[in-house]
Structures are given as structure tokens and as C-alpha cells.
Write a structure and sequence with these properties.
Blueprint (H helix, E strand, L loop, with lengths): L7 H8 L3 H9 L9 H7 L11 H21 L2 H19 L2 H8 L19 H22 L1
Helix pairs in contact: 1-2
Protein name: Helix-turn-helix transcriptional regulator
GO molecular function: DNA binding
Pfam families: HTH_3
């Protein structure tokens, strides 16, 4: 409620309960009655099911991210769209190969390594990108082993 600049008294007035009731809800001493959930959810512009099924909020957040991503993607030039697709494929492949977990365990790895091409307009194939990533992973492993 603090995030929405709404005091206990304000919420109490909006859902027709006393301030002490709202204070007890916030402290966890009591829960709102089922019939109050839609009213409370409407005040916070939320789906009332989030109070019962926390995964509903995650679904809405994912949908919002997807809408934002699609909107931005559609505004990009074809070349930039291809770059985004290539990057997403690499991320997906790393995730599926658990490379991300291995990197997280090493902690000291840099977040980003830059590789520059002679022709910035060149579009790399999936295989070429995979080869570059493999080379960089090998280099990182080599550097990490030198520190031991």
C-alpha cells in the first residue's frame, strides 16, 4: 500500500472497513474476507486472483514484458531485428546447456566480452555465433585457470 501512496485509513474508507482491520491485514494478523478481495484488487489495479494464486501476477508481468518486447522489436530495422534474434538464440542455447549456471558459479567472469567485426553490417549465422561464443568460453576458462 505504501507503494501506492495509500494509507490504512484511505484503504479502509474505500473498501468500507475500519482502519484497524486494514492494519491487521497488513501485519498478517488477519486476512481480508473473500468478498473484499475484488474491491481491494480494483483499487490496486490488480487481478483479484493474485491473492489466491500468486502465479497470476507472474503471468501478467510476463505478458507485459512480452508486449513491451514485441512493440520495441517491431520498431527496429530489419538488421537490428536480426541482431536481437541472434542474441536471443544464443541466450536460449546457453540457458538450455546450463552454461549460465556454470558462469554464475565462477563469479569472477566478466558480464560482457566485446568482439568487433570488420563489417558492422555483416549478419552472422547461428554456427558462426556459436563458434565465437565457444572461442570466448575457451578463453575465459584459460584465464580462470591461470589465476589458480
Amino acid at each position: 500500500m505504501d507503494q501506492h501512496d495509500l494509507s490504512d485509513t484511505d484503504l479502509a474508507n474505500k473498501v468500507n472497513v475500519n482502519r484497524t482491520t486494514v492494519t491487521r491485514w497488513r501485519s498478517g494478523a488477519r486476512s481480508p474476507k473473500l468478498e473484499k478481495l475484488p474491491e481491494i484488487a480494483a483499487i490496486f489495479h490488480e487481478d483479484p486472483r493474485i491473492f489466491i494464486e500468486p502465479s497470476v501476477k507472474a503471468i501478467h508481468t510476463t505478458e507485459n514484458r512480452s508486449d513491451t518486447l514485441n512493440s520495441l522489436f517491431n520498431k527496429l530495422s530489419n538488421l537490428r531485428q536480426q541482431r536481437v534474434l541472434n542474441f536471443a538464440k544464443v541466450q536460449f542455447n546457453e540457458q538450455n546447456n546450463n552454461v549460465e549456471q556454470i558462469r554464475e558459479q565462477k563469479n569472477s567472469l566478466p558480464d560482457t566480452l566485446a568482439a568487433h567485426a570488420d563489417d558492422p553490417k555483416r549478419i552472422y549465422s547461428d554456427k558462426e555465433l556459436a563458434d565465437i561464443n565457444n572461442y570466448l568460453d575457451t578463453w575465459i576458462d584459460h584465464e580462470e585457470n591461470k589465476k589458480k
